């Protein structure tokens, strides 16, 4: 199948680009002997799990269903963190996961003995209270009043018996200089207990596969904790695994005019690329430019009734017309995992571009996928 033959809207994962990212991550693992896990909250396309499993150490989950998915589909190391666990789910979670990380000492006290009884490892999330997000509180686990992790003020070392590791997660789409300064604060506040641990998890938020990412600095941070405290180091990136490895193909349905040219697409920001509105950000679009860069400017929007369902303003060399295809870049992460059927919008098909350059559909959605979510 050629790209022109794909149904739209359609997510496409490029196997060559995905494997390129995995090779970079695997290189970090080989040089430092750290372990890198796929954060399924960003990318959980199980079709690609056999490929990912060839390069990474396993998966990490944020809840029961992700834990089960990693256990059944990847079958390697499987970690989990949740701000709080449900009593009716904890037994299943323990059965699926190797490392269970708790968010508070109260949750640790409640479930620790059960975790240890089944031979699993118990961890505790700490909050170094050191923000590097530049004011983006929505994505800052160290923002004031954050619900994530135990601060030094509320740390209870007398309850650490049986705890084998510490976990922190403070970054979002950042470079390794922010990890370096974060580690300084982690050591400053929690050093007395680091040497008591077997492992430390640096969490996610690392854009390791981005072109300007400082990998040597990251590796120095990893080896610093290994050499100084004898810790096994885990990283759990999500975006870095599939960064720029997928795209979303859409079709222009109509063009209208209201103070500027507007193109209505068969895709939707709010339904198919929700981070465009939540971050917010303007996704890259093949063959387009910024406003003023090319002669024909359009605001691209979706079919839904939400007034703000707009993807952004883009300029083109030629006027857009009904039937034109548009290809949005970096649409593998936080798209498929967060999409929805608001307004009864159909979910995009999912396709893979293989190493031979051929496209094949791995899943298509229908009315039944919309109906099954409703009672």
UniProtKB/TrEMBL annotation:
Its cofactor is pyridoxal 5'-phosphate. CDD domains: PLPDE_III_CANSDC. SUPFAM superfamilies: Alanine racemase C-terminal domain-like, PLP-binding barrel. Its EC number is 4.1.1.96. InterPro entries: Ala_racemase/Decarboxylase_C (IPR009006), De-COase2_C (IPR022643), Nsp_de-COase (IPR005730), PLP-binding_barrel (IPR029066). Keywords: Decarboxylase, Lyase, Pyridoxal phosphate, Spermidine biosynthesis. One of its GO terms (molecular function) is lyase activity. Residues 10-331 form the Orn/DAP/Arg decarboxylase 2 C-terminal domain. It holds the Pfam family Orn_DAP_Arg_deC. PANTHER family: CARBOXYNORSPERMIDINE_CARBOXYSPERMIDINE DECARBOXYLASE, DIAMINOPIMELATE DECARBOXYLASE. This is Carboxynorspermidine decarboxylase. It comes from Niallia oryzisoli. The gene is nspC.
